[in-house]
Design brief:
single chain; 502 residues; TIM Barrel; eight-stranded parallel barrel; 46% helix; globular; disordered C terminus
Length: 502
């Protein structure tokens, strides 16, 4: 009997995060949701702290309302959220009491599983939040975040995967290549070794298609015994995103593997996101041209667009290639952290500052100082001694030498806000600012799909009814709604009365 492969849909989370920078609003997904729910995905990855922040700051949309909107339309599919084990607020540190509240509140809003990660592999912290997820009634999915460095060999990843597989409530592990730098040759050694070390725990594979090799890595994963693949609808796939669901099915067929997906649902989902991309001002996903520099700088796909935009905003767009050349040097000097949030941002920002300053490392952000001091977790390898000395010579370094992360209780955090504040609002105020949350609350409800608005339907109907043409019927349809009208044939004219005989 052939193996059945499960799929985790990333259209609504990492697909749009990679291609749109977390700027998908709930109404732009609305028409696709019933079809996604009927497709037969094992899991739909839905949201995370970054999406919450962007929705609130960019659009003043209430992220909790948006989450509810999505979850309520995916009733037949497990919904998943993500978070970094130490943080839900920017790149700083979140107290344990707030991390726990975030998890419990997400579960209250219908999130059934969480993938959680830490690129420095602070395993005690990861284990703590894994236990919190499990005790909250959700499924924890710890992540092995891949990096191409001299530090992270196969044995490094295998040792940590074996430990994670034994943690409370863990039913699956998630292996991610955020930068898209895993090659099929490395996958052929790494993935079988992880499979051999993790017993019967289900293994999920999540590879970004930045170099066009993700599908080939998926083939190696399938051969190694991985049974769950992360993909996205074609308009939200490829390039810095993940492989398309549509494109993986012929590969499964050729390998003699089966799936449970209803392929009839693919086209309406794709059509919706072609429309949504245009509505949001983005191009649909497409295969990326191969650029060998990715193996040096290892900048995740989603960060590449952000970096370009930020440089352009400061009149430095023409220096993008210089930044890419500086990033590998900084990454090596800082001990080769795996290039995913937040460490890819730390490296990228430091590279830009090195270009602007009179001397390299004259300007050092607080986060890089705290990273160097081990506040974010164990540094993969010792930082270059000369660079470390420059970082520690920063005026802010002395402040952080004796810094210990505050761990206020939930009651202590609440005391800073008005009495009776809901958990949801408390979390948003901690993640953003009082002014931004006040603006969101003033704005009110989240928008609806403009194609569904009754005034738009009525406008179409009115214009057709007023048409003096000879049409006997009209039909107007939009996602989830249709109107059909028929003209009654005119009554036959009365026959002239016959003259009275006299």
């Amino acid at each position: 009997m052939s193996q059945t492969i499960e799929f985790v849909d990333q259209t609504l989370r990492d697909g749009q995060q990679s291609l749109w920078g977390c700027r998908m609003r709930s109404h732009q997904a609305e028409a696709a949701l019933p079809h996604i729910d009927r497709t037969g995905f094992d899991v739909v990855d839905l949201t995370g702290p970054g999406m919450f922040t962007v929705l609130l700051r960019q659009f003043r949309d209430n992220p909790w309302t948006s989450t509810d909107f999505l979850v309520q339309r995916l009733r037949n599919t497990e919904c998943r959220a993500s978070f970094r084990s130490r943080n839900i607020m920017g790149f700083g540190f979140t107290p344990d009491s707030i991390m726990d509240l975030w998890i419990r509140t997400q579960v209250k809003h219908g999130i059934q599983s969480f993938w959680l990660y830490d690129c420095l592999y602070d395993l005690p912290t990861m284990l703590r939040v894994t236990t919190v997820v499990h005790e909250a009634g959700a499924i924890p999915v710890p992540s092995i975040m891949y990096g191409l460095t001299d530090v992270h060999d196969d044995a490094f990843f295998v040792e940590r995967a074996a430990k994670m597989a034994l943690w409370p409530g863990v039913k699956s592990l998630y292996i991610e290549d955020a930068a898209g730098v895993l090659t099929p040759e490395r996958a052929a050694t790494l993935l079988p070794a992880i499979r051999a070390a993790t017993g019967s725990v289900k293994l999920e594979l999540h590879c970004h298609n930045t170099t066009g090799l993700a599908q080939h890595n998926y083939v190696e994963g399938l051969k190694a015994g991985f049974t769950s693949l992360h993909t996205a609808s074609r308009p939200m796939a490829n390039g810095p995103s993940l492989p398309s669901t549509e494109g993986m099915l012929p590969i499964l067929e050729r390998m003699g593997l089966e799936h449970r997906l209803d392929t009839n649902q693919f086209e309406p989902v794709a059509q919706n996101f072609i429309w949504a991309a245009g509505d949001a001002g983005f191009a649909p996903g497409q295969m990326a041209e191969f650029d060998p520099r990715i193996y040096d700088h290892q900048v995740p796909g989603g960060m590449t667009g952000t970096l370009k935009n930020q440089l352009a905003q400061h009149g430095m767009g023409h220096r993008f290639d210089e930044v890419l050349a500086e990033i590998p040097r900084v990454r090596r000097e800082l001990g080769e952290p795996i290039m995913a949030t937040p460490f890819s941002q730390f490296v990228g920002v430091q590279a830009v500052l090195n270009m602007l300053a009179r001397e390299r490392y004259d300007l050092v952000p607080d986060e890089v100082i705290q990273y160097a001091l081990g506040h974010y977790g164990p540094v993969p390898r010792p930082i270059d001694p000369e660079v470390y000395d420059k970082i520690m010579a920063s005026p802010r370094a002395e402040h952080f030498r004796s810094w210990i992360q505050p761990q206020p209780s939930l009651a202590e955090v609440r005391s800073r806000f008005r009495a009776g504040i809901p958990d949801e609002e408390l979390l948003l105020r901690l993640m953003t600012s009082d002014r931004e949350v006040d603006d969101m609350l003033t704005k009110g409800s989240i928008p609806v799909d403009p194609r569904r608005r009754s005034d738009v339907i009525l406008q179409h109907v009115s214009s057709l009814v007023a048409d003096p043409g000879t049409s006997s019927s009209i039909s107007v349809s939009s996602p989830g709604m249709s109107v059909s009208l028929s003209r009654r044939p005119p009554a036959p004219a009365a026959s002239p009365a016959a003259p009275n005989a006299s």
